[in-house]
């Protein structure tokens, strides 16, 4: 058991290897416009976390995910960071290629 504890203290979880994990500093106020979209994201992401007891009491199941899609530069990442900041949740930044890989660190050219 001592060997395992020692190895755990120096090892890193392979699932998060190469993945940026943070609680971002971006806030909703940093994003201009997009009022309706920000409101929808707040309701889907922030409310279930901040008001979990109310959701449980009312028997409401929070959404399991919110896919954001669109062309490069349309604020998808910034919106996700603002939602994570508001909910005080960790933000994992992954590329599409990393999601497509079956194994962590796998080369897609294989």
Automatic annotation (TrEMBL):
Pfam families: AAA. This is ATPase AAA-type core domain-containing protein. GO terms for molecular function: ATP binding; ATP hydrolysis activity. Residues 68-107 form the ATPase AAA-type core domain. It comes from Zizania palustris (Northern wild rice). InterPro entries: AAA_ATPase_domain, ATPase_AAA_core. It comes from the Eukaryota.
């Amino acid at each position: 058991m001592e060997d395992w504890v020692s190895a755990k203290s120096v090892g890193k979880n392979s699932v998060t290897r190469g993945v940026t994990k943070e609680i971002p500093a971006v806030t909703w106020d940093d994003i201009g416009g997009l009022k309706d979209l920000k409101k929808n994201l707040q309701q889907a992401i922030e409310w279930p976390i901040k008001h979990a007891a109310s959701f449980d009491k009312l028997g409401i199941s929070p959404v399991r995910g919110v896919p954001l899609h669109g062309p490069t530069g349309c604020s998808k990442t910034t919106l996700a960071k603002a939602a994570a900041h508001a909910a005080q949740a960790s933000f994992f930044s992954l590329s599409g290629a990393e999601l497509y890989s079956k194994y962590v660190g796998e080369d897609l050219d294989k």
